[in-house]
Amino acid sequence: MKSQAYFEKIHKHIENNLKSSKTSIRIAVAWFTDTKLFDILCEKAKEGIQVELLMANHEINHDSNIKYRDLINDGGQIFWIGKEGAYAPLMHNKFCIIDNTILIFGSYNWTQKAKSNHESITVIEEDYNLILDFNQEFDKIKDKYYNPNAEIDWIKIVIRLETLVNVIKLEDLEDINYQIDKTKSLIPKNHSDKKLDSLTIILNHCSKKEFSQAVVLIQKFTSEFKKISIYNDPEIPALQLEIRSLEYQISSLSDEKTDIEKNIRSFELKYNEELGGLITKILHYKKVVAEKIAKESIKDKQKQQEYEEAKFDYEDFSKSYNDKLNEPKPFVLDEEKQNELKKNYRKATKLCHPDKVTDDQKELATKIFTDLKNAYDNNNLKKVNQILNDLEKGIFKSQGETIDKKDKLKIIRENLIRKRNELEEILLSIKNTDAFNKISHIKNWDNYFEKTKEEFNKILEELENEIII
Predict the structure, then answer these.
(1) Nearest-5° angle of CA 135, CA 139, CA 143?
(2) Do 31 and 56 touch, CB atoms closer than 8 A?
(3) Kind and range of the H or E element at 29?
(4) Torsional sign, CA 290, 291, 296, 300
(5) What is the dihedral of CA 46, 48, 54, 60, to 10 degrees?
(6) All residues at 6 or more sequence positions from 76 whose CB lies less than 8 Å from its CB, including other chains
(7) SS3 of 468, please?
(8) Main-chain dihedrals φ then ψ at residue 107, nearest 5 degrees
(9) What digits encode the pLDDT tens for the residues 172-184?
């Protein structure tokens, strides 16, 4: 499983993934007005790839410049969700499934305007359990509006079975047959749910008048379903899935932030190691020159001030330089080990991020997450692998898997959305720093430091000459 967060050129990443599709594309978004993305869908549909698009049946989509009928003419499918003119959001997060191997979701709206908005997506590859859950959510949304009979109403089935037990006890054959027929009518045609096998066996016993066996199986069937809370609000599974996806987004954005900060830190360490000595000498000579001028112009307050500043710069940098030299250095890893470190770190963060666990696990998750990040920052591959190995034993569970109260799920969802948005803002602010912009424009660090050394040596030579003169 691989995951990556993107918050720049998002539409390009979506385009590239859509273009790479070989068999199927399933998209569920409230708004879809990006003409370029739509053109890609049409081209893919022409190639024979199965394209399904779920959208809100809303004027925002209907008033766009897209001719949605073109996709249908090219062999794709469009499903309008909700009553016409009404806002009917599918989910707070938008998602796309490509070839049943790639999942894209996040805060990004698939619209023309979104290209200039501050949003993000997470792309996950080969997490088949999560992809299966999103496929089921896609089918549930579609079936609700286009094939309502496909949904199994387990509540009604259980009520019918309990009624069937009562009429069996009354030995009323006419009522028994009536309840059997009513129960059969609740079973959708061509449905693959394995739980229906037990129901079929029960009804077969009833048809054969084997009522004692039927009653035993009915009681077992209904008690098992009551244990798993079949009377839960149908919105709860959608909220749970949304929470799991938000947890993934937060973890992926957090990973991205960690990588950027680590890269800046690595550059600063190398900068200090490669150039710190030279800079110290340059600042020392600048201080000497400023001191010489200050002594010659003892009444000139500006020259005195320049000397004090030069002295401060030298002493401040010297202390910083020596402190960094004495700091523990990260382990040195070759490229293969670096890739393994990054991959396993990201796997581990998905399992222990403090924002994904329940309140009673948060303290332990925070400690493990801190240890994990420290190990990653120091290139401690052995420690990262050890933590990952422990986490894969199943220490923590997602809030989206363990909590089933609707009100609490909604609060958790809103908190996660807020945290995701905050992370997006933090990443944007980091991207706007001078340090990031400087480092991101350096293609080869070795060439940069070699060239900078030459420039600093020239400055140092000029200062030495100035002192001699």
Answers:
(1) 175
(2) yes
(3) none
(4) positive
(5) -10
(6) 41, 42, 44, 45, 51, 52, 53
(7) helix
(8) -85, -10
(9) 888 898 888 888 8
